[in-house]
Structures are given as structure tokens and as C-alpha cells.
TrEMBL record:
Pfam families cross-referenced by the UniProt entry: DUF202
Residue span, DUF202 domain: 14-76
Residue ranges with Polar residues bias: 1-10
InterPro entries: DUF202 (IPR003807)
Keyword annotations of the record: Membrane, Transmembrane, Transmembrane helix
Membrane topology: Multi-pass membrane protein
One CC-aspect GO term: endomembrane system
Region annotation Disordered: where it falls in the sequence: 1-20
Name used for this protein in its record: DUF202 domain-containing protein
Superkingdom of origin organism: Bacteria
Length: 110
């Protein structure tokens, strides 16, 4: 009888607070990306707007928008009772946006 109860409980998964913690982590990461994009824009405007600076700033803002779209889609997915795992394409897009934003920041500092 305990085996049947164990099998029934294995089918119902209680995720606990894990989806909420993951949503909060995505929000913190999005906030960090936002701060990086705003600081990039500030650096361009503070040092004088050159064509290269404006182009780098525009690229930073596009990367920020891409990351924001991926993060928003993931946060919405996590509201489901049984959220799906993140797709490989979305994970690659988030990683690409993050690394490219860091590269843009380095290029703007040089």
C-alpha cells in the first residue's frame, strides 16, 4: 500500500519555490543588463557623441532589447504550474546577448 502511495505522489510534482526563485533571478539579470545599457548610453553622451560611440550604444541597446525579450518569455513560461525547460535556442540567445553586451562595453572603453 505504501508503494501505491509513493507512485501516486511521484506523478504530482510540487515545485515549491523554485520557479519563483528562477523568475527573481531572471529579473535581477535583466536589471543588471539594463544598468549596463544605460551606463553605455551615458558614457557615449558624456564623452561626446561620435559616430562610433553612437553605433556602439545602439548595438548595446539592441542587445539589451534582445535579452529583455528572452527573459520576459522565460518569466512568463515560469508562471505555469509545470513550467517547461528553457529551449536551447533561448539559452543561446541569452548567452549571446550577455557576452556581446560585455564585448560592446569593452570596445567602448578602449
Amino acid at each position: 500500500m505504501t508503494q501505491a502511495a509513493g507512485q501516486g505522489s511521484a506523478q504530482v510534482r510540487d515545485p515549491g519555490l523554485q520557479p519563483e526563485r528562477t523568475r527573481l533571478a531572471w529579473r535581477r539579470t535583466t536589471l543588471s543588463c539594463t544598468v549596463a545599457a544605460v551606463l553605455a548610453a551615458r558614457a557615449v553622451l558624456h564623452d561626446g557623441a561620435t559616430a562610433f560611440g553612437v553605433l556602439a550604444c545602439a548595438l548595446c541597446l539592441l542587445l539589451w532589447l534582445g535579452f529583455l525579450a528572452v527573459a520576459h518569455r522565460r518569466m512568463v513560461t515560469l508562471t505555469a504550474p509545470r513550467p517547461r525547460t528553457m529551449s536551447l535556442g533561448a539559452a543561446r540567445a541569452a548567452a549571446l546577448c550577455t557576452v556581446a553586451l560585455a564585448v560592446c562595453a569593452v570596445v567602448m572603453l578602449i
